[in-house]
Amino acid sequence: MKGIKGFDTIRESFKTRQVKYGGYAALITLAVLVGLVLVNLLAGQLSLQVDMTSSKLYSLSEQTIQVLDKVNAPVKFYGLWRPGQESQDVMPVINLYLAKNKNISLQVIDPEKNPGFVAKYDKDKKGISPGSLIVEGPKGFRVIAPYDMYDFTQNQQGQSSVTGVSVERRITSALLFAGTGNTPIVYELTGHNEIALSSLNMVDVVERENYSVKSLNVLVAPVPSDASAIIMNNPRRDLTAAEAQKLLDYLAKGGRFLVLADYNIGDVTNLNNVLASYGIKLEYGIIHETDPNYVALDPRTEWPDLSDHDITKPLADKSKTPVVLLQATAVSTLDTKRRSIEIKPLMTSSARSFLRTNLSDTSAAKAAQDISGPLTLAVAATDPSWLDPNKPEPQARVVVIGCGNLLPIAMQGFDANRDIFMNSLTWIQDRPETISVRSKSLFMLPLRLNLVQLIIFGGLFIFIIPVAFFVIGFVTWLKRRHL
Fold it and tell me: Would you call 160 exposed, middle or buried from its count of C-beta atoms within 10 A (0-12, 13-18, 19+)?
């Protein structure tokens, strides 16, 4: 080897500082790559997954886990997919259910090759779409159509777009029905120019939550004995005295009442007589918001604060779409009420808001007769506030939301508005296991930053971080320029 020309020169070159540092860098890089490969292999063997999506698209809610803990009988999931064409949105969620409870199993059925099997579950004889999921338990079954696994909204041109994924919501609701076989009936009041739930595409939403929706005019008919809840959605006229008495009789027996109303109702004497029995009063006027952190579009469009309550708790995550209230009014708590009643606020305006009581006043400034904020925009009441397990005493539940436009705004892609409505309905039904199993929103909103936050983040990303990188690079260059 000694006689080979240039070999000594090559051998000496390996002793230079450049080669040494380069070798060290290569070895470190190789070690990092080997470590990453090993970590990935280990994670693959352990099936470790972390849901990094902001709305937790691939995680089960706490309430769904509670439902799964109670599934003690066999439940079958039948996926109507051709082999290899399983839904990429549905299968990851189904796998979470299968991993949480061994009583749940999945079988993929090719609907083209098994038309007889599919026909057994087509009770309406309208056909079952390929891609549907059938959930069958000891008390019955539910068919979840492919389009039911998503939430849609329409723009002014009539074009639809997907705003959320509701796979978990549909499956958990189907599990509850398959395990109990019961479908509560909710009645929506008519006769006061209410906005029908059907016109807001809400009937399907409510029915998919394991409810049945019917209409009720209490002026000509009594409250049915099978009414699990009554909904009054954005009325334009007050109740009559006779209707108010029927509702009071219904609530006295442990009835449940959900009211969405605002200034459009005008005179609220009789409705307030019903609410006064539970310590609540619906004010007349429109909330004007002057705090920019609470203004959505204009001073009459509110981003309210959400209180700590079972109805609002699932929406407290700041990554989710906010609740937006248009032309809302205040809901007050009466000073005089029965001691057995418990009233809790759900949504409030800012301290800089006020209730404009004279609607003909178009000025932006607060007038003397206006009511200063913060103002309560929605409340939940129970009577009695607690139940004695040794006494069969019924508990009345009432939710009042001072915004008749809650659901129309939900149609514009603000899923939290719909979730507030559905959470209120499930809360008055005392179904906590489904109260936060809501759609996973795909709706993206800009960050809400005040002036101080803008200055901090602007300085951080425009000045501090770039200067830090420059300093690190300059110091590194100084150290290496003599290598």
Answer: exposed
Whether pLDDT at 337 is above 60: yes
Domain assignments of the chain as residue spans, ordered by start? 7-40, 62-182, 184-441, 451-483
* Nearest by Cα to 378 from 296, 339, 323, 415: 323
Instruction: Fold for 184-441, please state it.
Output: Rossmann fold (3.40.50)
What CATH number should be reported for the domain whose range is 62-182? Answer: 3.40.30.10
Pairing assessment for the beta strands 133-137 and 75-80 based on DSSP bridges = antiparallel
What is the mean predicted confidence (pLDDT) over 409-421?
A: 85
Closest CA to 56 of 317, 434, 322: 317
| Conformation bin of residue 276: beta by default, left when phi > 0, alpha when psi is -120 to 50 | alpha
| CA-wise closest residue to 202 among 434, 424, 471 | 424
DSSP state of 295: B
Residue 99 has phi, psi (to 5 degrees) of: -75, -25
Q: Any residues with CB less than 8 A from the CB of 423 and at least 6 apart, and which?
A: 310, 311, 312, 314, 315, 435, 436, 438
Q: Which two tokens stand for residue 345?
A: 């606020």
User: Residue 108 and residue 421: Cα distance in Å, rounded?
Assistant: 35
Spatial separation of the C-alpha atoms in residues 99 and 92, rounded to whole Å: 11
Helix 62-69, helix 167-180: angle, nearest 10: 30
CB atoms within 10 A of CB 471: 10
As a whole number, the mean pLDDT across the chain is 82
What percentage of the chain reaches a pLDDT higher than 70? 82
**Six-digit token string for 293:** 């952190």
Closest among 382, 398, 400, 275 to 329, alpha carbons compared: 400
User: For the chain, first and last CA: distance in Å?
Assistant: 30
Backbone φ, ψ for residue 456 (5° rounding): -65, -50
pLDDT digits (tens, 9 = 90+) for 309-332: 988 887 776 545 688 999 999 999
